[in-house]
Amino acid sequence: MDFTLDEEQIGLQAAVRDLISAHADLNVVRTVVDDVDPESDGEPPGLWARITEQGWPAVLVPEEHGGLGLGLLEAAVIARCLGAGVVPGPIVAGLLAGEAIRAAGSPEQQATWLPMLAEGRARSTVALLRPGAAWDAPGDGVEAVASAPDDPVGKLTGEIGQVEYAHLADRIVVAAGGTDPDGEPGLWLLDPAGPGVTITRTPTLDATTRTSTLSLIGATAERLPGGDRAVLTGLVSRATVLTANDLIGTAREALTRTVDHLKTREQFGRPIGSFQALKHHLADLLVGLTMAEHAGWYAAHALDAGLPDAPVAVSVAKAKASEVARLATARMIQYHGGIGYTWEHETHLFFKRARRLEQTYGDAAAHFGRIATLTLG
Amino acid sequence: MDLRYTEADEHFRTELRAWLDQSVPAAWRAPGYWSAVPAEEGFERRRAWEADKAAAGFSGIDWPVEFGGRGGTPAQKAIHDEELARIGAPTTVNALGLAFLAPTVMKIGTDEQKRQIIGPLLRNEVIWCQGFSEPDAGSDLAAIRTRGVREGDAYVVNGQKIWTSNALHADRMFALVRTHPGERKHQGLSMLLIDLHSPGVEVRPLRQLSGALDFGEVFLTDVRVPADAVLGTPGEGWAVAMLLLSFERGSSAMGQYTAFRRELDQVIELARRTERGGRPAIEDPSVRQRIAKLHTELELLRLHSLHVLTQVEKGRALGATSSLTKLQWSQTHQDLGDLFTEVAGADHQLTDGTDAAAYGLQRAFLWSRSETIWGGSSEIQRGIVAEQLLGLPR
C-alpha cells in the first residue's frame, strides 16, 4: 500500500517549485496582474522558454513523439505548483491540447504537432466547454459541419467564452457538436489565424490569466478523427482533475500564508493566531484541505491506472477542491484584516483565481449532481 | 503510487472472509439487526462470538504472536476492520482494552502483567473499562481528583469516575489516580489496574440520550488496590496515559469508513422507499446533492485511511494526524445521521423498531452525537491540529 508520490514525482515537484520561485515568483506574477494593457500577453516574460527547458510541455507526450511519456499524476504535480504560485500562462491548457492530439489525432497529426508542442515550439490551448454548458456536454454551443462523418476537414460555427490564452495559440483544440442527440461530439484542431475566427479579449477578475471569447463562423478546422464522446469525456475529466489540483495548490498556499500572518500579527498583546476561534476555523480548513489533497492525487492516479471508480474520483476531487479553495481564500482575506482587502496585498490574487477555477469544469454543486447520477442512477 | 494490497495481505482477506462467511449467520447481517437485540443478550452473544474469533486466530491481528496475536501487518489489521464492518459482524465488547490497554502493557508492562492481562483480554475472559473522566475532569484530564493513598502493600483508593463505557460489564478498570504529591496537576498520577469486583467498588449505570445504559459511574470507597497493580512507574501515570492514548495514532479509519459506507447505502435504500415533498426522496434534488456530498466525504475518509496505512507501513510517525482523522470521521458520521433524518422525514422519530433498517440508522444517528465528544472532543482535536500541525501559538 503506497499512497504517496514516488521519488521521481517528488523530484519533479521540487524542480517545478524551484523554477517558479526563480522565474515566476509573486513579484513577477504581480507585473502580469498589474499590466492593464488589454492586448497584453499575460505571461511572465521568458517563463515559457524556462518551462520548456525543464520539459513541462512534454509531460503527457509519448516518448515516441519526443515527450517524457509521463502521466496525469505528473501533470497534476505541475498543476498544483502552478496553483500555489498563482502562475499565469497556458501551461495546463497546452498540456490538454497535446493530450487531445495524442488521444484523438491521426498518426500524421500526432507526428506533426506532438513534437512541436513537447518542445514548446508551438503554443496551444483548448476550448472544450463553454461557460454555462453541462459538464457532460463538451462542444455544446459549437456546430461542426463536414461533407461526411470521416471528412478530415470541417467548418465550425459557434461561440465559446473565456478561452484561456487563445490570443497566443498557434492551434486551439475545439470541441464541437455536443448537444446533437444523433451525432457524436468531436474534437477539432483550429488555426486561429484562419478565416471565420474572431478572438475578442475578455478581461477577468482573475488577472493571473488572459481569456477571450472565441467566435467561429464557418471556420475551417482539421478533425481529430479519434474524437468521440468517450475521448471527449476523458479529456474533460483530465482538464477537471488538473483544475482541481490547481485549486488545491492555491488553497494550501493561502492557508500557509494565513497561518504565517497569524503567528506574527499581534493584537491585544498577543499573536492573533492564539485566539481559539481562528485556530478552530483553520483546523477545520486543514482537515478539508488534507482530504482534498488526497483526492487530487487519487483522481489523477485513477485516470492513469484506469481504475473503475475514476469517473466518481474526478468529481470527488473537483467538488472538494472547489469547496476548500473557496473557504481557504475567503479565510485568507478575513484573517488578514484590512490589509487583506487591498490591491497591494497578494490575497486577492489567490481569492480571484480560486473563484475562477471553482467555476471552471464544474463547481461543487455540478459535481455532486454528477456523483448522484453516477451512483444513484 | 500503488494502492494494491500485497498478495499475502489479500490472502489473509480471503481466509478471514471465508471464516466470517461461515461464522456470521445471515440473520445477523441484516441492517439494524443488532440494534433490535436486547442489550444484555447482545453483549453476551457478541462476547462469545468475539471469543470464537480469537480462538480461530483472527484477533490481535497486528499483535506479536508471543502475546497471542497473529503477528500480522498494519494492512491486515485494516483489512480485518474492513471485512468485519462489511459483513455486519458483531462489534467488540472489549474496545478500550484492545485498543489502548493491551498495546501499552506490551510496551511497558512487567512480564507478569503481560502474562496476566493480554491473553485473557484477547479471549474476552476479562472485560476492561477505562477510568479516566471524572465530574470535574473531562477534557482537562489532569484535573482528576480520585486519590490513592499508599497503606502497606496497597493503595487505598477513594473517588469517582464517570462516563465509564462498559462499566456495567467490566471486570477491571485501568484508571488514572492521584497517588503521589506533585506541584503541578500532571505530576503524581499513577495508572492503577483496579479489580472492579473488590469491596468498595460501586458501579451505577447512566442512561444515555439514546436510552441505552452503555456507560456509568464508578464510585470507589476505600478500595484496596495492590501496590503492584500499577502500569508503568508509580507517580509517572501522566506519561503512561499519554502513551496509552497515542496508540490510536496508528489506526487507519478503514473500519469506520466501511461501516459508514454500509449506512449510507441503507440511507439511499431508505430514500428509494420514502417520500419527501410528496415524491420519492431519492428524486429530491437537495437529497441527491446531500447524498453525493456524503459519498464524497466518505470517499475522502477512505483515501485518508490509505494515507494513514501507508505512513504506518513506512514506519513514519503520524503525530497529530489522528486528530485530523477523528475530525473527518466523526463529523462525517454526524452529517450522515442528519441525512437520515431528512430522508426518513418525520418518521425518523418512530421508536417501535418495525422498520429494522431505519431503526438501526436511528441508533447510529443518536450515537453519532457522542462521537465528537469522547476520545478527545472535536474542540480539543481542533486545538491540537491548530497547534501541532499548523504551529499556531498556544
What does this entry look like structurally?
The complex is a heterodimer of chains A (377) and B (394). Chain A is an alpha+beta fold. Chain A has three domains: 7-118, Orthogonal Bundle (Butyryl-Coa Dehydrogenase, subunit A, domain 1); 124-226, Butyryl-CoA Dehydrogenase, subunit A, domain 2; 231-376, Up-down Bundle (Butyryl-CoA Dehydrogenase, subunit A, domain 3), CATH 1.20.140. Chain A contains eleven helices and nine strands. In chain A, the strands form two sheets. In chain A, strands 1, 2, 3, 4, 5, 6 and 7 form a seven-stranded mixed beta sheet that branches. A two-stranded antiparallel sheet of chain A has the order 8-9. Chain A is globular and about 75 Å long. The two termini of chain A are 32 Å apart. The model of chain A has no long low-confidence stretch (mean pLDDT 96). Chain B is α+β, with helices and mostly antiparallel strands. Chain B has twelve helices and ten strands. Chain B has helices at 7-23, 33-36, 39-55, 74-87, 95-108, 111-122, 237-246, 254-273, 285-313, 321-344, 356-371, 378-389, and strands at 128-131, 147-151, 154-165, 172-178, 189-195, 201-206, 215-226, 230-231, 275-276, 279-280. In chain B, helix 5 packs across helix 7 (237-246), helix 8 (254-273) runs antiparallel to helix 9 and helix 9 (285-313) runs antiparallel to helix 10. At the A-B interface, helix 7, strand 9, helix 8, helix 9 and helix 11 of A face helix 9, helix 10 and helix 12 of B.
